[in-house]
Amino acid sequence: MYRAIDSFPRWRSYFYFITLIFFLAWLVKNVFIAVIIETFAEIRVQFQQMWGSRSSTTSTATTQMFHEDAAGGWQLVAVDVNKPQGRAPACLQKMMRSSVFHMFILSMVAVDVIVAASNYYKGENFKRQYDEFYLAEVAFTVLFDLEALLKIWCLGFTGYISSSLHKFELLLVIGTTLHIYPDLYHSQFTYFQVLRVVRLIKISPALEDFVYKIFGPGKKLGSLVVFTASLLIVMSAISLQMFCFVEELDRFTTFPRAFMSMFQILTQEGWVDVMDQTLNAVGHMWAPVVAIYFILYHLFATLILLSLFVAVILDNLELDEDLKKLKQLKQSEANADTKEKLPLRLRIFEKFPNRPQMVKISKLPSDFTVPKIRESFMKQFIDRQQQDTSCLLRRLPSASSSSCDHSKRSAIEENKYIDQKLRKSVFSIRARNLLEKETAINKILRACTRQRMLSGSFEGQPAKERSILSVQHHIRQERRSLRHGSNSQRISRGKSLETLTQDHSNTVRYRNAQREDSEIKMIQEKKEQAEMKRKVQEEELRENHPYFDKPLFIVGREHRFRNFCRVVVRARFNASKTDPVTGAVKNTKYHQLYDLLGLVTYLDWVMIIVTICSCISMMFESPFRRVMHAPTLQIAEYVFVIFMSIELNLKIMADGLFFTPTAVIRDFGGVMDIFIYLVSLIFLCWMPQNVPAKSGAQLLMVLRCLRPLRIFKLVPQMRKVVRELFSGFKEIFLVSILLLTLMLVFASFGVQLFAGKLAKCNDPHIISREDCHGIFRINVSVSKNLNLKLRPGEKKPGFWVPRVWANPRNFNFDNVGNAMLALFEVLSLKGWVEVRDVIIHRVGPIHGIYIHVFVFLGCMIGLTLFVGVVIANFNENKGTALLTVDQRRWEDLKSRLKIAQPLHLPPRPDNDGFRAKMYDITQHPFFKRTIAVLVLAQSVLLSVKWDAADPVTVPLATMSVVFTFIFVLEVTMKIIAMSPSGFWQSRRNRYDLLVTSLGVIWVILHFALLNAYTYMMGACVIVFRFFSICGKHVTLKMLLLTVVVSMYKSFFIIVGMFLLLLCYAFAGVVLFGTVKYGENINRHANFSSAGKAITVLFRIVTGEDWNKIMHDCMVQPPFCTPDNSTYWKTDCGNYAGALMYFCSFYVIIAYIMLNLLVAIIVENFSLFYSTEEDQLLSYNDLRHFQIIWNMVDDKREGVIPTFRVKFLLRLLRGRLEVDLDKDKLLFKHMCYEMERLHNGGDVTFHDVLSMLSYRSVDIRKSLQLEELLAREQLEYTIEEEVAKQTIRMWLKKCLKRIRAKQQQSCSIIHSLRESQQQELSRFLNPPSIETTQPSEDMNAINQDNCAQPETSSQQQLLSPTLSDRGGYRHDSGDAGKPQRKFGQWRLPSAPKPISHSVSSVNLRFGGRSTMKSVVCKMNPMSDAASCGSEVKKWWTRQLTVESDESGEDLLDI
């Protein structure tokens, strides 16, 4: 990059290399980790039996076991694993098992580690064999030998070696005993001495648990280590056979050299040097083959093999599926407990006596309204008897375990009697009747549903695969029926024994699910109660303590000034418009911009702008332009302090400083705000003119550089990043302890083996230390343009320097501190090759194993452990660590559905004209594949450099012009086929139009100018065109979406990383702005300004020679010029400051922040990576729904009316199909859900898709606790409302049929009247004899004859199981007489004899009144008012009978 800066414009080099590192090194490379993790998770599920259980423990490690008692039950019995098995006395066995003995041994181990870490190099003449460290080692070795003998004596040898820990201790005892032998001291046996530090892991149970979780299941990690070692051995052997004959190449002459070279490629440190040396040695002919060989090995080792270690560690940190839901319940319960308590800063008021504000009444209560009495004051006068009674009512079902009973049978019986009496007084007869009716109706509905599911009503239809919606609907119906016990005896009668057994098991399973529901509801109620208790506690403190919730104990709670401050502090932009009728939020055109404006309050927006302006002002500061001497830079300083003073005063007056519920200092962010303000205020008031190096004024300037961190507090999403960063601090701390332990072990070993042995004379011709004195000449290489005059006999210019016997410049092992610093640099895989070469050259080749083992353990396990822990903590903070497989798939599905959008593809034109043909051509797969091939062909043109002076460039550019015209033709065809508005709807089409337009502009400029800039523009257009091919393939689109969504979701993490980078850049300018140039500090990489410091820190983020930059900043006299007056006049560095500065920056950025990017990519990759077996809704399902949505949403607005949802659901096919013959009830539920949730308004694309997703999964397995409760409550409400609507519609149909029958009867009677009147007018004579008795008898007979068919017809009409016209056909069939037609109805034959009798009676008795009475009896209109009561009576009778036929008919309607 630095060479490109010297050769090209600076902006071009920075832009190219920074984007290259960001996309390739940080995003695309981490996609491989995501792929390996997901693939390993699938393989682990398939090979679960081979790996075994994660939580398996050995029998020797358990202290409790299950034993069967005499009654046949099981009980947990404690087992003493250290039971006496040896021959030692009881007192020694008791002492050995005591905790005092255990802690004494661990303290001795700690002292031994401290003594070993205190060892250092004392000079060449010092006798090292029998110094104080050797004597201390002998004493500790004897002590631990006696400990091992005591344990063997107490436990017996068999009992002693049965424990893995004792085996490790025995191995250390044997090794350290051999180590104290004088001839073996400071040899390879030193490993046994330094490995004693591993025993200190037993001090912390959390650390021991963590180590067992990572390394306990040793099969996977051990197998991967063996695989890596085998791969290295095989590739080393292959490379040895391939390159051992090459001359002038010493890297592959022997197997150890080949092994070291291949291991160096594995660690990515200097692997390019290995490849370049090999390419130069083999020649140009075989160079491409050799390059491909090394590149493939490097990609496999770095992208796949290292990702496997991350996948294994993440799998070890994963919990079992059966423990995750239990953890979810425990976590919810713990959250409820924490919400119940007030913070300590508020609970401090409880320590003071209550002093409530009393109200003195000077007149009678009748004159003025009595003020409201405080609840906290009235609680002490509540009758205890009422509390006991309520306690009895709550605890009687579990009287044996209640806190209110007295463990006496008489008292329990008395309480039961009181409970029954109270319950009788509470529940009335009417309430019981209503409860019985509701229970009976629900029972009928569930029984009928179960009957239809078990019956063969669908037999005879062709076999068809059921949709996932239908399957999940029947699962829920069966679950509800079994849960509520609707499998009655009538349904279960006639089944086989196996079926009954299966039903019983299902019932037990669903009863367990019901028990889980009760636990979930109990936790939810506990949360609500905790919130209520918290509010009650705050109210009590507010009532009883007058200074509670008073800012600075001065401003009143409802003071006008405080209310004004609250309004100013909490004012924010709110552009969400709600519908006054439905209450739904309307989507505005610029809703994304409005959401951004409403992200924080107006006051916070002002402070964000002021802070950014202040940071920009600090960017112009340097050691040569200081804020103390630049008045223009002081303006921003004054503005920042003034605005922050106003902000803090407003917030303190509105919310309080510390002892208020919403205080400014209620978390770490508030403390940081006050700290930054105080530092800025002190610096502004002091403004020191002279700042000596390593002084308090320089420390104040360094603390002033923390100002950009204010944005973390002002932006909520940035606070979330900090929370995700530090909430998993415990696991990160444990990993750091493990790595420090590993470094301490190898550092102690290195001190004892390499102390003083790495020093060498700076004159390469001197070997011994005795000869290293005097001076010698060093030649230097200079440019030939200097024209230096050389002395006689000199071939090159140079100068004389003194000979010095010294260690290497960057590292040594003379003490543990320097050794740990060197190993920390090696742990980052920077500079370890130099350490290896120095150790091999100056100590011996056998000692190269030391550094290779450390690099393997530190890199392959240590750093990948860091990555795994950060990813696991990120998942835990996001709430996905405790999710089961089904729940994680559901969360991925929801996130994937949020990204899904309607197809921006217009429909095909209706006619078969020119547009329709163009539409068919552009949408044909062959046309799309042809365009993709042309894009690839145009991209191949960039394989040759486009140089204006090269004649080959002109034909290449001409071919690119031809491709551009083809793409113009493609865009034109699409615009014609889809119309301009339809073409513009798709984002992909917009991108194609943009690139094509740029291509046309390039063609015009190319033929007009023909220079280097046009060729560069043409190459850029081809690159932009190449990215369009990613959206035309499913896999490429998935990876592209992963990268894009990861960038979107990691925006705030990237911003947070930049803010940290900015803070360190400002501090670097203050600390190292004037450091002299060295090996890596040069004119490109230095801290002279904030811009250059940012560039250097970005380089350090990539890990490129960060340790060498650190050592350049550590330069001390006599290699620099000190100045004690001001820091900007010296060119020396700061040793302690550089050590803290660079190590902390590298750990925070490289080990934590960058791993958060890996976690985000892994999370987003799982959204799009799913096989057909794993996914809940596949890509084809979503694509089918998008096509159907486009058919319904003809206006392409993204919303449709609610009534159109019915048409959309009927058009769905495949896995989302709703069969109206089988799943009519499901169809009603889905339609009503849309109407209920949106109040009959418009529904969006995501609303319908979300409803389908909920209906297509098993909510009991996929949803979490709170979401599951809310969803089940919604579905239960929908089911009830749909059932009520169904019953209501059926009753309306019944009433409609009754009215139709009544109208038909009226028409029949009117016809009878007309016919009888005609006959009467023809044959009627004046009456001669009148009598009343026969008339009454005849009326009775007619009444009997008419009432019976009327009643039967009413019964038939009321019964929902009989049809409308069946009754008439039945009557006519019984009569067996011909029928007369009146309109569309047939006249029954029963009334005809009545008409003859009536005519005869009227003939003989002249009975007009008799005819009137008969008509009144025949007319059912007189009973119209009682139709509703008849229906009610029939429904009441049906409730008492469990009829399957009525239920089936009820569901059929």
Describe the protein.
Mean pLDDT is 75; it is low at 49-74, 376-419, 421-432, 451-464, 485-498, 1327-1425 and 1438-1453. This protein has 1453 residues and is an all-alpha fold. Helices cover 65% and strands 3% of the residues.
Low-confidence stretches: 49-74, 376-419, 421-432, 451-464, 485-498, 1327-1425, 1438-1453
The counted number of beta strands is 12
Q: Level of helix content?
A: 55-70%
Largest sheet composition? 2 strands, antiparallel
- Mean pLDDT, as a whole number? 75
- What is the count of DSSP helices, taking H or I runs of 4+ residues? 57
Shape field? globular
Q: Which structural class fits the helix and strand makeup?
A: mainly alpha
Roughly what fraction of the amino acids lie in strands? under 5%
